[in-house]
Amino acid sequence: MRIARFTTGDDPRYGVVSGDLDEHGELDPDATVVALAGDPLYVGMHPTEEQHRLADVRLLAPVLPRSKVVGIGRNYAAHAAEMGNDVPAEPLMFLKPNTSVVGPGDPVFYPHQSSEVHFEGELAVVIGRICRDVPKEKVADVIHGYTVGNDVTARDLQRSDVQFTRGKGFDSFCPLGPWIETELDVSDLRVQTFLNGDLKQDGRTKDLIFDVPTLVAHVSSVMTLLPGDVILTGTPDGVGPMEVGDEVDVVVEGIGTLTNRVARRG
Questions:
Q1: Tens of each residue's pLDDT in the chain, 266 residues
Q2: Whose CA is closest to 104, among 148, 61, 141, 139?
Q3: How many structural domains is the chain composed of?
Q4: Which of 43, 60, 77 is the C-terminal boundary of a domain?
Q5: In which domain, by residue range, is 45 found?
Q6: CA 131/CA 152 separation, integer angstroms
Q7: Same domain, yes or no: 123 and 162
Q8: Same domain, 163 and 238
Q9: What is the pTM (predicted TM-score) of this model?
C-alpha cells in the first residue's frame, strides 16, 4: 500500500495511491489517491469517499518526522572506499533535524556557506510506533513503511567540521517521497540516482553492510524511536556534486521516484 501526503490547495491530507509503477519508477497516468481521515500513523487507516487524480494534487513529504531523522554513514563498502574511509565495525549514526525534510518537487537550497553540495540517494525506513531496544526478529513490527530519501550533504563543510551536523543539517537537505510503501521486501532493491537524466549511482540494498533489521535494532538500542521517525540506510557509491539548476532523481525499486531541483537560497 502506498500512503501519500498531499494537498489540493487546502490543508495537507493523507491518502492511498493506486496504480502501477513503470520501469522508471513512475506511476501510470490513471493513478488516483483516495483521501484518508487523518494521519494513519496515529488514527489508523480510514478511507473517505474523497478521491483525486494523482496528477491533480501536489505531493508533499510523506512523513513529517516527529523528532528526528537518523542517518547511517558508510553503509556500502564501495561508498566507504570512494570517500577514503574504512568500513565501520558497527553502524555509523548521525542526526539530521526534522526541519531538513522537504517533499517531492520541492527545491534543495544551495547554502552560501558551501561550494560542494552532493546528492546521496538511499532507501529510507519510516518508524510506525514508539520503540526502544527492538530485537532484530521484531523489527518488522515497528516499521510503518519505506520511502525514498536524498541525504544531501555539504561535503566541504562535512570535511572541515569533522562531525556531520552542519554539513547534513541545512533546511531542505532531506528530501523524502514520493510516498510510503508499506508492503515491500527491501532485502534486494535497486537504488539509483540520476543527475539531469544521467545515471550517477546504481546500487542494491543486498550490498548494505548492515541490513534494515540490524539498523533499527542498533539505533533503538541507543535512542527511543517515535512514530514518523526516519532512518536513512546509507548511500551507494557514485555520490557527487550538484549545482544550482540541476535536477536530481532518486529511484528505489518498488517505491518510486523522488525528484528535486537545486535552487539558490534567496
A1: 999 999 999 999 999 999 888 877 888 878 999 999 999 999 999 999 999 999 999 999 999 998 999 999 999 999 999 999 899 999 999 999 999 999 999 999 999 999 999 999 999 999 999 999 999 999 999 999 999 999 999 999 999 998 999 999 999 999 999 999 999 999 999 999 999 999 999 999 999 999 999 999 999 999 999 999 999 999 999 999 999 999 999 999 999 999 999 999 87
A2: 61
A3: 2
A4: 60
A5: 2-60
A6: 27
A7: yes
A8: yes
A9: 0.97
